[in-house]
Amino acid sequence: MKIPDIRLPKMHGLPWRGVLAGCFFVFFLLGILAANWAGKDNLTQYGMMNQYYIGQLAYMELDTGAYFWYLLKKRFHVFGMGVLLIFTRFGAVMITGVISWYAFSLGYLFVNALVCMGIQGMIVVLLSVFPQILCYAAAWYGLARKLFGRNQEFAMPVGMRKTWKNPGLFLVLSALLCMIAGVWLEAYVNPVLLRAYIQRM
């Protein structure tokens, strides 16, 4: 019996920015629908945004050094796999899955926060992902551009074209640095901003 030859479509040339943006909005909507399906009682009692849980964040002591290494290991389990898979066609599944999961989680948390705490809860959700989300988005965007982008899209910054002969490698290393910077911000800056807002609520 002959095994069928299954080939994935070519990645280059796709309108990848639009496709990824579409995935984000679709799964963000699915997260909102899932939170509504869970019901107000479940969100209030067992959701992550209930008043007791948020109150604990305001006064807990955090070992930022240990937290940084914990986050670094946790984030790089997924990101490291993404780096490896972008050199294959399965990278499209990986990157789409990560973006979809982030979007779904954000949509779910927004509804959870709104049910439990109102507008203040939505601000808490936004602060819980800021400012590290900017670096994480840049990191995954760099990997997506390496995977989907055409060669002519890899325009090197002025002054670096002679130093970097491989634009694809530049994108991967830049994504790696953005991810590390995001982990540092999440460990050292985000808790300060989040705690300061919760204490003033």
Summarize, please.
This protein is mostly helical. The protein contains eight helices and no strands. α1 packs parallel to α5, α5 packs antiparallel against α6 and α7 packs antiparallel against α8.
Task: Write structural notes for this entry.
- By secondary structure, the protein is mostly helical.
- The protein has eight helices and no strands.
- α1 runs parallel beside α5 and α7 runs antiparallel to α8.
- The N terminus is likely disordered.
Structure classification? mainly alpha
Low-confidence stretches: 1-13
User: So how many helices?
Assistant: 8
Main sheet makeup: none
Shape: globular
Arithmetic mean of pLDDT: 81
- Between the first and last Cα atoms, what is the distance in angstroms? 67 Å
Q: How many beta strands in the DSSP annotation?
A: 0
Computed Rg: 20 Å
Helix proportion? over 70%
In N-to-C order, the SSE pattern is: HHHHHHHH
Which percent range describes the beta-strand content?
Answer: under 5%
SSE inventory with pairings:
Blueprint: H1 16-38, H2 40-46, H3 51-59, H4 64-85, H5 91-117, H6 119-128, H7 132-148, H8 167-200
